[in-house]
Amino acid sequence: MIGKLSGRIDYRAADHLLIDVRGVGYLVYISDRTMAALPGVGEVVALYTDLVVREDLMQLFGFQTLVEKEWHRLLTSVQGVGAKASLAILGTLGPDGVSRAIALGDWNAVKAAKGIGPKIAQRVVLDLKDKAPGVMAMTGTVADALGEAQAAADETVIEAAAPRPAPKPAAPNASAQSEALSALGNLGYAPGDAAGAVAQAAGETPEADTKALIRAALKLLAPQG
Q1: Which backbone phi and psi does 67 adopt, to 5 degrees?
Q2: Is 8:19 a contact under the CB 8 Å cutoff?
Q3: What is the mean pLDDT of residues 116-143?
Q4: Comparing 121-125, 126-130, 199-203, which segment has the lowest mean pLDDT?
Q5: What whole-number distance in Å separates Cα of residue 225 and Cα of residue 221?
Q6: Is residue 57 located within the same domain as residue 71?
Q7: CATH number assigned to the domain comprising residue 102
Q8: DSSP bridge partners of 24
């Protein structure tokens, strides 16, 4: 299994890259959003990868973060969602947008991706709703590792290594979100409902601590009227 590649971009196409890793070229398919965020030809890049093996085909798909890769794995577990459809969803919404859409049950947001119809969008939301909290929690516990992976790429690909750049900081209240989700679960709220409320509360007050997030989420979960 090829889990990560670090090398130089040989060329960029509409939906894939050719990455030269010490003289070996790897063709990696990526989303539009990832393509727009990557450097130009000749520059060093590091991507997490997922290898799809079929009887007549082997394809690599690339992701900037482990969270994006995890969403790809979950999206492709849904019946009717292949690797290209998953990239379309991630390219349209990004991993954070996918988390919010599924946690809030917003299948219309998923349907906005190219080639995704309403039935598939609804199936994605229903099948993955209870899995959203776990992936959302990864935002705080897994380094959104582009900075670290890029630094590793610089060290392995460039002979005269430049100083290691600082890792990209995690979201300011990611740990608080994870703790709030756990607390709401202990109170008996369904994982999907709790994740949606916490995501909305965190979006409205990014600097909120755990207690503040729990209070705000409970207000959102309280019966209206």
Answers
A1: -65, -45
A2: yes
A3: 77
A4: 199-203
A5: 12
A6: no
A7: 1.10.150.20
A8: 21
